[in-house]
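May I ask you to review the protein record following this short note?
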Amino acid sequence: MLMRTDPFRELDRLTQQVFGTDGTWSRPASMPMDAYRSGDEFVVQFDLPGVSADSIDLDVERNVLTVKAERKSEVGDGVEAQVTERPRGVFSRQLFLGETLDTDNIKASYDNGVLSVRIPVAEKAKPRKINIEGGEDAKQINA
């Protein structure tokens, strides 16, 4: 149902995360995720601790789900940071969704630093029974 990510886009994403958009070295930004099927929907959960819900952008175009979020620095001006291990900046991740998912009815929620995206399985992809017609011995079988 979820399709593998395009390796060239992943390589480009990793390169941007490691080297930054300005060509300087930085730590990789992360947006770890879990994806699983639960009944008639797929659930994808992204870890985004410290990210404001207002800075999360979620969109779908041609079966590509794009998640963008920004974690801003909490250190004010004139403060000398001693250790900065937590990634900051803009995070982005794309998932290629299969044709069997209903991208028109995606729902998302954000709670305790976890973005949960629920994508229903399209009706056309669900198992259904097909009637066999013909005489007295007509019966139903699973399709």
Notes: Helices lie at 7-19. The chain has one domain: 2-74+86-124.
